[in-house]
């Protein structure tokens, strides 16, 4: 099948949405499908207000047809609710084409944290965006229940996976500083609640791996914390494996792919008992959930690395990709109105 994925989150961004899409696309291709991702790199962009690392497409309404039709998709998935997502939605509705969407991020809570816009208003906008979708894909049952309670329909399960070959225990991995090593990996932004982690009264050394709009501010405020910037590949995997506990202070993530990466590395998790951590751990005792994050972090030191690794091995990217494929809503005939336009079949 020829599958077009439209996403405002794409390379060179580094986040859970991009990693999920990259990996799922690779798995779908391995299964014999032809997949392209239409991201901001194909458009003229401007920096996102308050988050300049993210680029927003400004000519999407005029270019979306030129990007989609040469590929001749047989199914369209809209991954995000940004300018590209809105342009793809408009394109599909105008032509009565079925499409699926995904709810990756708690945008209402994030926007409220930055602008104080009421959460109810943003959820109303998201309900309108997703209403025509043939399937709103969500990562966890907790998010499914939350969206159903808010009036969303056509919700479909789409779990996540983890690369257990890259992320695995590495006995030789070390980080500078006194033990224990407490680690956070992810965007350095206000909605991630990182400052709560940095204020905890914990022995040893704290590491924050990632970039984001709050990085400079937190570096100035917490000079004793090791801020490494973004890490990828083997370098990232070694940071995970060298940690004693992975501390996840976010209360708003829909899943938390980094939780699986830490667990696959044999590192126990300390987090709040909220959707995301609650769904990933799922009673496994591979981490500690507590409204007192400090108590959770200290208690997590006693969890065996083997227990963490064993739980992570239950999550497969191949199953994730197959679930995604099964959720799609294919067309009766592929879109091919612009056959003379240059063919762009490879995600860039």
Describe the structure.
Helices cover 37% and strands 17% of the residues. With 348 residues, it is α/β, with parallel strands linked by helices. The strands form 3 sheets. A 6-stranded parallel beta sheet has the order 2-1-5-6-7-8, sandwiched between helices. Strands 11-10-9-12-13-14 form a 6-stranded parallel beta sheet, sandwiched between helices. Strands 3-4 form a two-stranded antiparallel ribbon. It is globular. Mean pLDDT is 92; it is low at 338-348.
List keywords for this structure.
alpha/beta, Rossmann fold, 2 domains, 6-stranded parallel sheet, 14 strands, globular, disordered C terminus
Which helices and strands appear, and what pairs or packs with what?
Layout: E1 2-6, H1 16-30, E2 34-38, E3 45-48, E4 51-57, H2 60-68, E5 75-78, H3 83-94, E6 100-102, H4 107-115, H5 119-130, E7 136-138, H6 141-149, E8 155-157, E9 181-185, H7 194-199, E10 205-209, H8 215-221, E11 226-229, H9 233-242, E12 245-248, H10 257-264, E13 269-271, H11 277-281, E14 287-289, H12 293-300, H13 305-312, H14 317-327
Parallel strand pairs: 1-2, 1-5, 5-6, 6-7, 7-8, 9-10, 9-12, 10-11, 12-13, 13-14
Antiparallel strand pairs: 3-4
Number of strands: 14
Tell me about the biggest sheet?
A: 6 strands, parallel
Into which percent range does the helicity of residues fall?
25-40%
Number of domains: 2
CATH topology of the largest domain: Rossmann fold
